[in-house]
Amino acid sequence: MTRSPETSIFPSEEFRAVCERMDGYLSSLTASDEYMDLSSEHEEILQLAFVARAVLRDLVTPSDEVIDLIAKAEDEIKSLVDEYGEDNEDNEDNEDDEDDEE
Amino acid sequence: MSKASLPSDPYLDRIEAQDSKLYLEILYCLIEHKVANKSIARHGRTPAEVLSALAKEKDAPIYEIVQHPNCPDELLRSSLQSPDSLVRLSVANNPNLSPSQIELLASDEDDSVKLHLSNRSDLSEDVIRKLFNWAKNEANQDYGHKMSWFYGIAKNPNTPREIIQALLKFDLKEEDYDGSTLGSALMSNPNMIDEDKALLSINGIPPKKMESIEVNMLEHEGLPSSKAFEIQSFPIQYIQALAKAGHPFALFHPDLAVAEFQPSFNEYIDYFIKSEIIYRTLWPELIERNDIKFFYLRSSYDGDALYFHVPGLQLQHDFTRGSMTYNSMSYAFIERDWVEVIEGLDSDDVISLFEHRTFDEFIDFEMEEIQLAFSISHSVLAKRVELTQKGREFLEAEGSTYFDDDVDYHVRILPDKALPYSWKKLSKEKQLLITKVIIDGFNEKVDGKYQFAEHFLVCIALLPNTSSEIRTLIEAVDSDVVRQALAI
Description:
By secondary structure, chain A is mainly alpha-helical. Chain A is built from five helices and one strand. In chain A, α3 (43-56) packs across α4 (64-84). Helices cover 50% and strands 6% of the residues of chain B. Chain B is built from 27 helices and six strands. By secondary structure, chain B is α+β, with helices and mostly antiparallel strands. Chain B is globular, with a radius of gyration of 28 Å. In chain B, β1 (293-299) and β2 (303-309) form a beta hairpin. Chains A and B meet through α2, α3, β1 and α4 of A and α21, β5 and α22 of B. β1 (60-62) of chain A pairs antiparallel with β5 (385-387) of chain B.
C-alpha cells in the first residue's frame, strides 16, 4: 500500500478501511477470555492493531513503513479473531446452549 | 544519666586540638550562614558560649541545644519551665541535670517527659518509685499497651528490689513494635539477682540484654564541617583548614589544590555517597547533553529516588525502599537545591518511561488504553509514527494516570545551585586525580563499592567536557556499561 500525495493522516480510504477493520478485530480480541495468553504470544501483531487504532483516533501520523506493516498484519489478526475472538466464543456459547437445550 | 557523650565532628575536633581560636571562628561563621545550626547543636564538642549564641538565632534548634551536655545552665533552668512539652522532654535527655531538676521533671504533667526521664540511669530511688507508680497507674488503665513505659525502670541498676519483684509479675513477654519485652529489659539490668534471672529464663526470656539502637543524629543531620563545604561564600581559609584536617569533601572543592587531600576511594566512598557530593559534582552538568532525562520516582511503597536515563545506556536500578543503588540517589535526608521536581509528565517523558517496559506488563482487561499508549510510545521510538497534538495530550493523560503512585516525575537540574561543586570548575589535574581514584576503586572490586565507582565512571564518560586524556583512561576499564557510555 502506498501513501497518497495529500498530507492527511490517512494516506487512502483503503488504509482507513484497514484501520477500522483492525480496530474491530482488536476489540474482539481484548474482550476475549483468551486475551491475556494470546497477547504474550502475539505481542507484535497486537501492537500493530493498537497503532491502527491510534491512527483512527488521530493520535499518530503513520509512516509508510507502518502503513505496510498494518496492511500485511490484517490477515494474521483476522485469523486470531476467528480462533479466539469474542464473537467466536459467543457462537460457541450459543452452540453449547443449544446442546444443553437438546 | 549515662554520661555518654554526643558524637562529634572529627574534622572540627582536629582543628580544635590544634587551634581552638580557629575552631570557634569556624563555628561562629557557620552560625552566620545558618545552614548548619542543627548540626552544630548535635556536635558533641560545641562549647556553651557557641550554644548560647546559637540559642539566640531565629529558629534556633532549641530541642537539640537543651539536650547538649554543654547547654548553658541558665538556658537549661529556664527550659525546665517551658510551656512546650517537647522542650521539657528534650531537657529530660540532658545528661547534666541536677537531682532537683530530675525530681521536677518526674512530676511533669506530660507523659512523654516522664517516659524519657525514666530512661536515665542517674535516677534516685525516690524518683524511680514515683515513675514506677505513674507507669503502673497508666498501665492499669490501658493494660497491654504500655509495658514499654517500664523498660527504663526495669533496666536501671538503682531500681529497688521490691519494684523489680513487682515488675516480674507483669506480662514479661508482650512484644513491643521492635520485638522488645519487659522481660528482656529486666534481663538487661546489671543488678538482677540470679534467682530473678532464673525466673525470667523459666518464663522463656533468653539471657540476652536488650539492645538499644543508638542513632547517630549528627551523621543523620550531616557534619557541620560538611555543611561548610556547601556554602559558596564560606571563607577559603576555613575550607583550607578543614581540608588540612582531612575532610574528604576537599577532593571535590574546586578552590582547593590537589595536594591538600590524597584520598582512597574505598575509604571515603560512604561519605561521598551519603552526602551525595560526588553525584552533585558529576550529575548537574550532564544536562548539557541533549539526550539525557532526569526523573524523580515518588513511590509510597518504594520511597523516592532520583535517576537519569540516556537512550542506549542500560543502567540497572533497584528502587526497593532502603536500598541505595549506585545508579540513583535514594537517601531520604538530603536536601538537593540543585534538583527541581516538575509535577507532571510530558509526552516525551511518557515515551521514555515506556521504553524499558514490556507489553505484557500492561495486559489486563482494564488497561486497554495504557496498551494503546504503550504501543504508540514504542512506535514513536521506532520512528514508525509521529505524534499528533491529540496524541501528545493522550500520552500525557495516560502517563499521569498509569504512573499514578509510582510516579516518575521529570526533573529540572540547576547546576548553579550545585556550586561550588562542578566538574567543569575542577582543574584538569583534579579531574584526572578523581578519575584515577575512582578507577582504582573500581579495580579493587570491594563489595558493592566498585559498582558505585562504575557509575561515576559512566558519568565522567557521559560528561561533554571530559578530556581525551581522561577518556583514554576510562577506555581501559573493563565494564560493559562504561563502554556503552563512551560509545554514545
